[in-house]
Design brief:
mainly beta, 66% strand, three-stranded antiparallel sheet
């Protein structure tokens, strides 16, 4: 169940989130989601200019 989101920042830091969803706008929002894909908790708020790579994979 769920999706794993991995983000690699320009400084080389790798961030990984399980059962997460990405919402992009002026900022990149990472939410933890429940089994119905409804947001439950904000895990991260990242400036898109700091992101080198962002990808997701299904579990």
């Amino acid at each position: 169940m769920g999706r794993k989101i991995t983000i690699i920042l320009k400084n080389g830091t790798e961030l990984a989130y399980k059962d997460a969803r990405v919402v992009e706008g002026n900022r990149t929002w990472i939410y933890q989601v429940n089994k119905n894909e409804h947001p439950e908790e904000l895990l991260a708020l990242i400036d898109p200019n700091h992101i080198r790579t962002l990808y997701s994979e299904e579990d």
